[in-house]
C-alpha cells in the first residue's frame, strides 16, 4: 500500500532517521534497498549491477528537520508542562496496554517509561505516541487539533535529540532501538507507511549491532535478555504483517533464535512466540513455493520443499497439541477477557497457517474450497478476539503494534471464495483497529473488496456462459449488471437481506486470482515488466496497477498454465 510522508499542520515534512548504507544503484533509482551484501536482492532480481560505496560512513543520518519553528512555538505555548504530563498519564493508563497487546504490557508500561527518565528523546516519543493515540486524526475539535499539533512538535523534538546524539557520537544503540520502535508507531499512526518501513529496516540493523556487542560481552545480561525475549519477537511479529518487504530482515532475525520444544507451553506468551516463529517459517515456505510455481520453466515443487512442508506440518501439529493443553489448564479458573481474546487470536492464527501450509505447494486456487470450515473458524475466533479488545466506550484502539485478527481476516478475504464467510471477514476488518502494524485497515478492506468483486463478476460471467474462459478486466465489464451480491453492505448481519443472495455457482478456477502486487510505474516496476507489456496494458506512470497471476486452461491440450495480468486499480467496479 503506498504511503505518504508525515507532515505537520502546515504541510512541512518531519525529518527521519535515514540509512546511508544502501547500494548505489538503488540510490540512483530512488527505490528502497534491502541492503543485502555483497549484492542486494532488488538489483540481482532485476539483473542490474549492484555496487556499494567503499568509503566508510556513519551508519545512520537524519534528514535535516524542518521543525525547529514548530518546536520553538511548542516550548513557548501555555501549559506546555501540563500537556506533556497529561499525555504521559494517558499513555500509561490507556495507550501502553493497547499498543503492544496485553502479553507485552511490561515492556510498554514499565521498561519504556523507565527509560524516558534519563532519555528526553524517549520521553518526547512516548508523549507523541500518546497524543496521536488519543487523537489519531485531526478534526474540528480544538482539543484534538492541539493534540495533533503537540504530537508533531514532540516528535520533531525527539528526532532532533537523537540526531544531535548521533552527530556527537554519543548515541546508545539500545536507546536508539527503543526510539526506533516508538518512531515506527508515530509514523504508522500518521499513515507514513514508507517511513515506518524504513525505520523498521533500520531497527533490524540496530538489533544485529546489539547482537554483535552481546557476543563480545559489551552488553549487560539484563539488556541482552530483554533484546531477545521481548524486542526481537516484536520485530518478527511486526515483520509478519509486512512480510512482502520484511522477508530479508526476518531471515536475519531468525538466525539468532533457537527452536524451542513445543510439547508444553507454560504461558500464552510462550505459545505466541512459537506460533510467530512458525508463521515466519511457513511464509518463507509459501514464498519459495510461489517462486517455483511461477517459474517460466515447467512449474514443479522440488522434493526438499515437500520435505520441509512435512516437517512444518509436524511442528504446527505439535504446537496445536501443546496449545490445547495450555488452554485447558488455564480454563480451570475464570479467565480475564484479555486472555480469552488472546486465545481466540492464536487459534485464528493457527487456522490461517494450517491452510497456508496445506495449499502453498499447489498452483490451484480451487484447492482452498476444501478448507471452508477452517475459514469459518477464523472468522468466529477473530470476532471473539475483537470483542475482547473493545474499550469501555465500545470502540477499538486506533492502533496496534502486535499481531492481530487483521492478519487472519486479510488472508481469509483473499483466499476464501465463500461469499458469506468472505463478507464476514471484511466486515470484521472494518471493526478492527484503524492502523495495524504498518498499514491502514480501511485500505486493506477496500483492496479486499475489489479483489472479491473482480473474482465474483468474472465468475458469474464464466458460469453463465460456459464458452467464456477468458478473464475480463474491469474495463471490459463496464456496463455489466452484476447482481448476486451488493458491495454496498459488508455487515454480516445483512448477508441475507439487503446484501443480496449468495452466489449460485462457485467461482471457477479461471476467475480466481492470486500472487498480487500493487505498483505505480513512476515508483518502480516489477522485474517481469517489459516495454511490450507497458504498451499492451497502457501502464501510465501516474496510475496504480494491480498485477496478479491466474490459471488459464488450454482447451486444445486440456492443460493449465499460469498467466500474468494487470488491471488499473483506479477504475470503478
UniProtKB/TrEMBL annotation:
Transmembrane segments: none
Pfam families listed in its UniProt record: Zn_clus (PF00172)
SMART domains named among the record's database cross-references: GAL4
Domain Zn(2)-C6 fungal-type: 22-52
GO MF, one annotated term: DNA binding
Assigned keywords, A-Z: DNA-binding, Metal-binding, Nucleus, Transcription, Transcription regulation, Zinc
Keyword Magnesium: no
CDD domains per the UniProt record, alphabetical: GAL4
Gene3D superfamilies named among the record's database cross-references: Zn(2)-C6 fungal-type DNA-binding domain
PANTHER family per record: ASPERCRYPTIN BIOSYNTHESIS CLUSTER-SPECIFIC TRANSCRIPTION REGULATOR ATNN-RELATED, ZN(2)-C6 FUNGAL-TYPE DOMAIN-CONTAINING PROTEIN-RELATED
Name of the protein described by the UniProt record: Zn(2)-C6 fungal-type domain-containing protein
